[in-house]
Write a structure and sequence with these properties.
The protein has about 200 residues and is of the alpha+beta class. It is about 40% helix and about 20% strand. The strands form 3 sheets. It has a two-stranded antiparallel sheet. The longest helix has 17 residues, at about 165-180. The radius of gyration is 18 Å and the shape is elongated.
Length: about 200
Amino acid sequence: RAEVLGRFSFCGYKVIAEKTIGSTLYFVAQKLNTVSTEEAPSYSPIVKLKRIGLNGEIITIHKFRTMHPYSEFIQKDLYEKQGLELTGDKIVDDFRVTLWGKLLRKYWIDELPQLYDWLRGNITLIGVRCLSDAKYKLYPTDLQQKRIVYKPGLIPPYYSDLPKCFNEFMESERNYLKRKSENKFGTDFVYFFKACNNIL
């Protein structure tokens, strides 16, 4: 289902109705846009994802794939239709995530390929989370502007604070960015060791 809907979105269609009868998925799709210009849809074990970087520029990061192929193309639609879980910043009943993907996410294993992005200089070791454009637009304007002052990080502040809902995620980032503006290196030092303790 995730790949079918993702491929439709990739090709410029919006699925406006769908229903599963037995084992068959029926749908109504409307042509809205041209075919996506994305050159590397997620179809390999390691995927390339576009994220908002320093000064709002688009950067590419790498992760182990935890979703069905082409899932990234329906992220915005799912935010609008299903909303976010009360316990975090994840989409409610996100059918795009695979069984092995849930395991990789639980232990943060899917993030390991970003070590390569850190070595390339696209991201820092400690910093706000790398966000997709769709998720970035869910943030209030003031926090959007504060986030892009610095490079996003491999280890985000919520690994240290362990927030329980989306508002707490944003508050965690606000506190981190405020402290970082006052003491950049000291703040990153404290957050690094607290995050490592939680991860271990």
